[in-house]
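Translate sequence into structure tokens.
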Amino acid sequence: MKKQKELETKQEEVIEQSQEKPPVENPIKEEPLNNKVVEHFEYDSEYLKDIEDKRVEFLKYYKTQNIVKWLVGMIGLALVIFAWIGFPNFGKLEDGTQASWVMPAMIVVVAVTLVLVFTYTFLVKRFIKKRMKSYFFNYYEQCKNYVFSQEGFENATIQIPDKIERVQFDENLLYCNVAEIGSRGLTEFTYHGDLMMICDCAAQVKAEKRIMPVFVGKYLVAPASYDSNDPIFIYIKGDHRSLPPTNLEGVKAVFDDKDMIIYSNNKNWAKTINGKVKKALSMIKPDKQLIDIAISIHDGKVYMCLGYDDPVMVLPLEHAFDPNPLMEVRKEIPLFVKLAEELSK
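Result follows.
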């Protein structure tokens, strides 16, 4: 599967890895930089247009710094070669021996040049990371503005830090033996008065000598009226790209059809998953980018692991920002929060 073959390195390393396929580490990905043809799209929202404007601005800055860094490296190399070859010629005495200053001068010039080049490279790397983080923050800020500028949503705010704690993912009880959690873009909002949170998230497990994802997508947490510690798990089936929950051993399958399966050891599960909840669930359909949905309900909360494909999870860098996946997300998010609203009654 694509997500298992092209997983991302940590966001602060994306620029340095831009010319090679990302290693398997953090499945929350940024698009690697390359020289492919850039597409153009129409943006019908100021938020969408700002994402593209900031992408172009950052890419221009990155490429400029990359060229300057290359030139500085070449100048440094030229100075080292000149010191190593030129000084012995300038310092040659009449008897054919070398002047005493030649070797110390060579060492000083080479050492100073290397220090200056490495210092400059280090500083440029820091500047690029700072600008990259600013670009990422703006991306999520404008995504938040676009997605939550709909009826019923209020007070949408990106949190600082914009990541969830490990325990906030583990408490959904859907996946076992999770080794790594990556997240970003953590946003809190209210929907008809209910406080909810959502973020981009990835969970991975160790498999032999590699790391594999068990979830990549958007992670939504909301209040629920079901306060039992005996969980109800719901899985809306997807296609071959799906990553089903892995922590279902010992939990009974109480409902199963072609679209959805429900697990619970609570004999009264149907009181929670009533007709209105099932109707809300039936409105959610996996598609080209929404791969599958895993839901956990227990202890007064509902946890939704919304598996999304690369067009949603990959941040645009060299390629023009395609607004269509985000436009689809904007249509789908109300379906999930309406489901959460039914579960909170």
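Note: The helical segments are 2-5, 46-90, 102-147, 166-170, 269-272, 275-282, 310-313, 324-343.
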